[in-house]
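Slide 14.
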Amino acid sequence: MALTLIAPPVSTPVDLSRLRAHLRLEEGDDDVYLQHCLDTAVAQFDGDDGELGRALIAQTWRETFASVPPSGGSVMLSLLPVVSVSKVEVFNVAGNWEEVPGSAVELFVAEDRYHVSADGWPRSGRGRDVLRIEYVAGYGSAGSAVPLPIGHAILLFAAHLYKTREPVVFDGAPVEVPMSISRLVANYKIWWR
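Slide 15: predicted structure.
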């Protein structure tokens, strides 16, 4: 299984003006570095490499699998939450990618995981990855769709990065990123990844 980002999100869960207001900064004050801190904070939580194992803003991914399920079987998608399945293809015995008709594909949720099944999976040929699925994952296309605790964790982390420009501060007792950030996103973290 491998994930490839096909279309990145068109917006961010938290924008620069919201972060600037959180920090009580005037417009233009250190915006380049502030944006860098915000981008780093979003990357910490978002997408395949993010700590949560979730897509925050709608984005399109291609996930590949080494085998095709048996008739009536399904595959489990890695990122959550899944909005829709765009395309399902099987590498067939002729050595070509064969698209499974959309009407034959079903997206369903079982035990908090998203699965894709098909009425009749085509027979696969030989190859390293013989099944690929493109899907849209994320809470929505606007930052307001992202759960508030995640958005606030991004704000806290970006503010921490902005104010504390070293990994540990030794002014008295050593201080690192507050535990409150971990607590805010704990309910959204995918633990089985």
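Speaker note: The CA atoms of residues 13 and 143 lie 4 Å apart.
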